[in-house]
Amino acid sequence: MLEHVVIVTDGLTIDGGSSKVALTSAMALAQSGLRVTVFAASGKPGADLAACKNLHIVSTNQGDTLGSANRPAGALRGLWNRTAKVRMRELLATLDPQRTVVHAHGWTKALSSSVLAAVVQAKFPVVVTAHEYFTVCPTGCLYLHRERAICTLRPMSLACIVKDCDSRSYAVKAYRIVRQLIARHAGGIPRALRHFISVSVFSRRVLEPLLPVVPGGYAFHPIDNPVDVPRLARTPAERNTGFVFVGRLSPEKGGLLLAEAAKRAGVRVTFVGDGPERDAIEHANPDATITGWLDRDGVGEYVRAARAVVVPSLWYETLGLVVLEAAAAGTPAIVPRETAPGDLVRSGETGLTFARGDVSDLAAKLQAMCDDATVERMSRAAYAAFWIAPPTMHAHVAQLLAAYDDVLGTPSRIEHARSA
Q: Which domains occur in the chain, in start order?
């Protein structure tokens, strides 16, 4: 019987979708009566996390590898974090592998694959939520940043290794290649893993064929990310003006594409977020508004004040949480086809889809959303579709518990991950 869950995440503060799901679900699991341990390497826990009953925090207090004052030491730690592995071994020595599941959300920013190696070597059942594609791709996104295109190369093939595709430089790509090789050979990733949580049908469809063939294959557990928002009256999106983008202003997110499309369409656009493409976006569309990062309530205000949210991502994504959060308010979405967000929109009913990377097509869809009757119809449909079966935290925990029972019943006993 399951008694204890160990949540593995790089940091104790919410700085993205992965950490948000890891930490909020950890608290919800603890509140359900399970004993929960959050294992991390950086950040200070918020008051709600620190005060949560049945929840224990184990932190190596090392910080992110890129933020290390000693960059060489931080880089080496990012390849193989010996301290984190020792601390994980110590933790597992106090737990029963027949009553414990280790649930890994993120490890590439601080913990490294050493923590998963410790779990595998201790023969504890483990499940990984595929928030990105780091289990197979050294950059985690299957995306060619130089060419602004989806990568079709086999991850870690010779063609992949020599490809200059990182958002920063080939030197960074080379570092990521070394990290991936260590994860494969010393960490046993992904061969030593058997259970994955997929946050969307699309992301599983992308990831599964790229995993190495192993006896018995892999088990994928489809679990919705939680969208815990209060049910308010539908926002009258048809009365709003302008469109909104929410997220990091980085090339693969497509913010520059949206800025150019909005200028062509002659519509107002607001970017809620920040990042390296901010200057380029301001140059491409001087009329665009960039708010910088806002808290949850601030983001919600902009989403409810828009005719539609736009997710112009050039990479696959794994979900597109803002599309669901917008639908909960009654704000329709414009998303690219052949991406995870594209699976969340019924084109022509709850929003519109466009050809990924096509500025002209996106501009046309923005103009189509200028029709009040069209927006009202889609707003009502998106709102109704979301609230038929909302992906609440309660539902999320129920799905997790079912997956944990399955994982606990068939724990991995892989022996080949080397000790280090």
A: 4-226+393-409 (3.40.50.2000), 237-388 (3.40.50.2000)
